[in-house]
Amino acid sequence: MPSLLGIDSGLTVTKAVIFDLDGTPLATARRKVTQVMPHARHVERDMAELWRATADAIREAVERSNRPASDIKAVGATAHGDGIYLLDREGQPLGRGILSLDSRARAIVDRWCEGALADQSIALTGQVPHVSAPSALLAWIRDMEPERFARIGHVLSCKDWLRLCLTGVIGTDRTEASTSFTNVKTQEYDPDALRLFDLHDLSHALPPAAGSDEVVGTVTREAADLTGLCEGTPVVAGLHDVTASALGAGGYDEGIVAVIAGTYSINETLSAQPRVDRRWFCRNGISPGTWNNMSISPASSANYEWFLDQLCAADQASVEAASGSIHALLGPEIDAALARPSTVLFHPYLFGSPYGAAASAGFFGLQGWHDRGDMLRAILEGIAFNHRIHVDALREGFASTRARLAGGVSRNPSVVQLFADVLALPVTTSQTDEAAAWGAALCAGAGVGLYAEPCGDPSRDIASARTWLPDPGRSVEYEKRFRVFKEIAEAMSPLWPKIADLAPHST
To answer: What is the largest distance, in Å, between two alpha-carbon atoms of the chain?
Structure first.
């Protein structure tokens, strides 16, 4: 029976999912990957460890599928976008990979955005540079680690590194190529983009870009030995996880805003023409002549996970020992808090925000009679409010009348209803738990002719588990809370840098 392998390497977990051709997951395996934070604002990972963890996950998925590896007809990979994974001129890792949660380049980006460069960048590349953009990180390495900079042979993304480990072929795809150095109109690399950031010395290091569904290599013997895959299995170029998530969730289309509540607050919509604005990135779509417009910030469900890790550790250990779920345990507390009035608001800016890198997280309106449920409610509302900021921006630029929600929070009906009420839009969830991996698998299937195109999702017609309609009364109440949420953020904007300066060596 033919099947497909989708690899999805996120910021904390790398996973392998084997799918039937109708989108049914046959087997899933995950491995945690250690984040290394040697200094404040530095978020890195060991590239060799990432590959070993991914290879282990692939092997486990193959074994758990109870099917021969020869059934897997193609492989597609996706992973967190932005950040950089550098190779030297011999093709070996040049230090640790830098994740998209990294904000070491904050001062560089602030300087760029205070001058004319930001306007020049958006006109040329379709986006204002941000702290985890390859342009910003490479500029930081140029200034702070010149010896390392001089040794750069190749600039890859996370999924490109995994693809190299699978095939031995260096390259990227169109969606990933557009993170910093392509012309928004031609959709191809532009030397002027490198010159804009004073990175012209790296023209040799940009990897060739293929179509996301283009077969670019096959699994090598060495990779087959590590993963359990068959040597010679075709591997496609893959794609940026933001795009893969929208594709796999059935939200990759015009008129739909795809909302991915993961580590990042991802909000995107497709267009047939480039339209630029400081509030979103206008990047290459999967097909030439299409653009994926992304309004994002590192401020979504990672805040919820942080709260669980830091303040619910004992409960997590207890329920895991009993093979239970911390989410099931906390569900009644959250539902009870959602049903009663509350003054508690939370800004979900532990790792970043739409208000700049200096912003930080915080509770407001918290008083002695509030409990853990009230705090969890505020965190979830804050996550939804932050998505609303991005969705509102996209709705001003594009005609989006409905939303497609994916990410771990979409498994909780109360939270999905919260998103519908906050966004004041119908919100549809997908039956596919692993949307990004399925998006990568769709590209793999198209690459070997099993689908006519990556968007030819055979499960698209049945992907809607349910559509949640906004409750008009609750939407009115959330509108009031959202306005206060924004007013506090705007009032805090001049104070956040002062807070950061209280511990200058940690920023």
So the answer is: 63
Q: Over the Cα atoms of the chain, what is R_g?
A: 22
| Per-residue confidence (pLDDT) for residue 146, from 0 to 100 | 98
What was the pLDDT predicted at 463?
A: 46
Q: How far is CA 280 from the centre of its chain?
A: 14
DSSP per position, 374-402: HHHHHHHHHHHHHHHHHHHHHHHHS---E
d(CA 333, CA 95): 44
Beta bridge partners of 428: 404, 467
Spell out the domains of the chain, with CATH numbers in brackets. Answer: 3-249 (3.30.420.40), 301-429+471-502 (3.30.420.40)
d(CA 291, CA 276): 10
pLDDT at 466: 86
**Beta-carbon-side half-sphere exposure of residue 270 (alpha carbons within 13 Å):** 22
What is the reported pLDDT for 123? 97
Q: Is 384 exposed, middle or buried (0-12, 13-18, 19+ CB in 10 A)?
A: buried
Whole-structure pTM value:
0.90
Burial 139-175 (b: 16+ CB within 10 A, else e): bbbbeeeeeebebbbbbbbbbbbbbbbbbebbbbbbb
Scan for tokens 């480039």, then name that residue.
274
Residue among 130, 36, 140, 47 at smallest CA distance from 86: 47
CB-based burial label for 497 (10 Å; 0-12, 13-18, 19+):
middle
Q: Using CA atoms, how far apart are residues 237 and 4, in angstroms rounded to an integer?
A: 14
CA 409 vs CA 9, 245, 262, 418: distances in Å: 19, 14, 8, 11
Cα→Cα distances 439→16, 78, 399, 457, Å: 13, 8, 24, 9
Torsion 110-113-116-120 (CA) sign: positive
The DSSP H or E segment spanning 297 is strand 291-297
Q: Is the dihedral of CA 384, 389, 392, 393 positive or negative?
A: negative
227 and 219 Cβ atoms separated by less than 8 Å: yes
Distance between first and last Cα of the chain: 53
The residue ranges of the chain whose pLDDT is under 70 are 456-465, 505-507
Q: What is the pLDDT of residues 463-492, one digit of tens each?
A: 446 899 999 999 999 999 999 999 999 999
**Running DSSP on this structure, what letter comes out for residue 314?**
H
Closest to 99 measured CA to CA, from 244, 302, 348: 302
Tell me the pLDDT tens digit for each residue of 284-326.
999 999 999 999 998 999 899 999 999 998 988 888 888 888 9
Fill in the DSSP letter of residue 356. Answer: -
